[in-house]
Amino acid sequence: MDTKVLIPTAENIAYAAHLIEQGDVVGIPTETVYGLAASAFDESAVEKIFLAKGRPQDNPLIVHIASLDMLPLVAADIPETAKQLAERFWPGPLTIIFNKSDRIPPAVTAGLSTVAVRFPSHKVAQALILKTGLPLAAPSANRSGAPSTTTALHVYNDMKGRIPAILDGGSCTYGLESTVILLNGAGDVTLLRPGAVTVEMLKEAVPHVTIDDGVLHEIKAGTQALSPGMMHKHYSPKTNVVILDASLPAFLSFVNSHADESVGAMVFDGEETALKVPFVTYGAANDPMAQARLLFQSLRAVDALGVQTIYARMPRRDGVGLAIYNRLLRAAGFEVIRL
Ligand code: TXA
Ligand code: MG
Predict the structure, then answer these.
(1) 177, 176, 171, 169: which is closest to 5 by C-alpha?
(2) Which helix (H) or strand (E) segment is 158 a member of?
(3) Residue whose CA is at the smallest distance from ligand 1 atom 18
(4) Please, what's the b/e burial string for 156-191 (b: 16 or more CB within 10 A of its CB; e: otherwise)?
(5) Atom in ligand 1 nearest the alpha carbon of residue 34
(6) Distance, CA 204 to ligand 1 centroid (Å)?
(7) Residue 221 reports pLDDT greater than 80
(8) Ligand located closest to 323 CA
């Protein structure tokens, strides 16, 4: 199959909408990361997403809408708190879990009775949803286990020959997947996946926010995860990633003392000048939004260094930093060395 990379003109958006109406899968830009989109009502189209990604069948997809009127098509009950959060954070990088409507086939939710829903702010994603009139199921547009894609070229590299078209919306604004939350009957929030809508921002909107164990800890095989995606190894380059929890001087001396052992470093901007090993940078130490934009592209660049192990600097864990740490932990298979 030939994979076309298309500028999102009105004509090309109409073409992409036509592909989706036919039951095909299209790569689409969103403000978080690129998605692999198909009609959320079309079971066989959704199965093509799983095939294109090589995604485990037990990992449910997020359904994307482009107006609040579409929400009752996909969700069965809409709690008051969800309405308030939607008012505040939609369109934007927040995904809310609802009870699913009957129209959402089990393939979308991996057999769960709940469905994850997001209203993206990206104009191309919105235009495509509105053109089809369909809610679009879309996971991140990477091969399963690989870092998410934040440019059309990343999507092309992972998906060429597997999908008919990609809409090229340039680099993603945030570069990290959406925040995923679950609501309980009392309107309390459980954070399943951190993102650009931070814990601090959620706490301004609701009285109680709990961070699920799976955000910062490995979920043991055999236990039931609230968010199935947390169970899988994720975001990983082929190179072995290890996080070093250390001051900058301790990090530099540790890495440089292993300089003849095929190691590399993943550091913040400017820190590379003191390194004696190959490196990638991922934004300024005090700028988590820049780190978010660069994280996945830096993880993708790691394999080109030709080293066996890459030692990564520890990000801060407040604000958007929590999301960066969550992704980096998974890329490292939870391997953290404290110096
Ligand atoms: O920013 C994003 O969310 C991007 C863009 C394309 O919208 N999408 C994305 O999808 O990151 P994906 O499939 O890579 O991640 C979806 C996450 C997974 O961890 C999955 O397990 C979780 O959401 N999820 C989906 N449905 C769920 C449900 N019903 N209950 C709990 N977790 C769910
Ligand atoms: Mg993903």
Answers:
(1) 169
(2) helix 152-159
(3) 229
(4) bebbeebbbbbbbbeebbbbbbbbbbbbeeeeebbb
(5) 6
(6) 24
(7) no
(8) 1
